Amino acid sequence: MEKYTLIKKEELPELNAEGCVYIHKCGARVVHIKTCDGNKVFYIAFPTLPKNDKGYPHITEHSVLCGSEKYRLKDPFNILDKGSINTYLNAITYSDKTVYPVASTSEKDFETLMRVYIDAVHKPLIYENEGIYRQEGWNSNGKELNGIVLNEMKGSLSDPESYLYQMCKKELFKGTPYEYYSAGLPEAISKGTWEELKNFHKEYYHGSRAVVYLYGDMDISKYLKILDEEYFSEYDYREPYSYPNVTGSGKKCFTAYKGEVDEECAVICYNIGENNDPVLSYALEILIASAVNCEGSVFKKMITEKGLGTDINAAVDDYGHLTVVSVAVKNLKCDADTLYNELNKLWRELDKEKLGIKWTAAKNSALFFLKARDFGYKPEGLLYGLMLMDTVMSGEYRFEVLNFAECFEKAEKADIKKTIREYFLDKGCIGVLKKGDEQNTEEIPPQNDGSLIIYHEQTDSEEAVNSIQVTKPSDIKKEPKQIEYECLGENTFIPLKTDDIIYVDLYFDGGALTDEELTALGVYPSAIHAYDTELMDRLA
């Protein structure tokens, strides 16, 4: 522990936990959420702001998981996925950062996952084997281009709205690093080189720039020691990474063309600025849900009633240093200026009174989601870590975003008219995607897949395979989880902490209904959702 300085310690009552921030002498930051949750979570993250569209953040994310100095395997990720009892195992590239998360309920399994990931980002085999880059990034056999990331992005950007969203961000942030797509544009990926990939890793994956997150019931001193001895101790101190300041802009407009577009669509992106205000983030989520996304919203009514398109949806992207709100219109039936002016008119007229019960419904739904802690396949500890990530990476060690009730109370009282004036009114970049006569003019570079062929011919040694301690049945605890309960007569009561949420199930006897009526009954909830929006708002 002498290599670390504890700089922040705070009670987190809504999580029944305690949050701590440690800084290693090299400058790396470690966040620990101390809680009784046995589903332990670890991630290590780095700022990876791109300098071009060659996709180095994305390709690096793939490549470092293709073996490392201690675990000289071609695919340790696959071995971990099959040979552990992990509850989560992944790697994610965001617009300006990359994160490597794992989770497990087994102490031994969790430690193995953590050690493999630490060594992967610390000493990957990409420095000694070009075949890894050719496999994960791109390669040419002289006749066609291939590569995992290259093909992945061709598929992802074939979706018109996804493609237009990236083009819109390119226009909105022109002249700044945020104009580049961290996942990579296919036409740029094939211009990348192995040397540039290695330089990218060397610059951004320095230990001083790492942000580590640990969550759950654990001996934190044990894991801080592992991090120091196996990673941080090899690095000298560096100043924390500083994100560029990117200010907002007025209206921008452009037209893009794509060959496989069946119908025109439009996307408008708004730059909200630095993601350092959780109250603003929650307020934006409520605003967008109530004004745009819910059935019968003022934006959906305007789009359909005026025949400007068939549907409209919006999203808040706040997983980067900058928050971006995007609004997409399907099957566009007007020009860009008409759409922009109509949306601008709505923004100008919008207030809480106009949103009415939809504002309260959106707020309650968002708060219920966080209080219920039903995050699907993601461990709850991971979601909390992702919510904290950008704050810590920016050098602001605050746990405010995890104080849900307090943040939502402030968000509900936010001055929405002021928020709209500051971030939406007369602002934003609008792009329209139209069908174009695309011709395949892609030049195929000379053959460069020699190292890839050699790499594919290699096999993992028995020693390398055994270097990862896979979980054995004997490692899994056999004791069943004990659930507290109380029997009163014929009733059984199980006490559960529900964070002020009251769950009620109502049952009705349908024995008198015919088969046709039972079939119709199954459609009834969907019909209510679509046609009785006032009732659905009240239920929310």
Could you walk me through the main structural features you see in this protein, from its secondary elements to its overall organization?
The protein is α+β, with helices and mostly antiparallel strands. The chain contains 21 helices and 17 strands. The protein has helices at 56-63, 76-83, 107-122, 130-136, 148-156, 160-172, 186-189, 194-204, 220-230, 278-293, 298-305, 336-349, 352-355, 357-372, 380-393, 404-412, 416-423, 450-457, 462-466, 515-531, 533-539, and strands at residues 4-12, 17-24, 29-34, 40-47, 86-89, 92-93, 97-104, 139-140, 145-146, 211-216, 252-258, 265-274, 311-317, 322-330, 429-435, 486-488, 491-493. The strands form 4 sheets. Strands 1, 2, 3, 4, 5, 6, 7 and 10 form an 8-stranded mixed β-sheet that branches. α3 (107-122) packs parallel to α9. The longest helix is centred in the last third of the chain and has 17 residues, at 515-531. The protein is globular. It starts with a strand and ends with a helix.
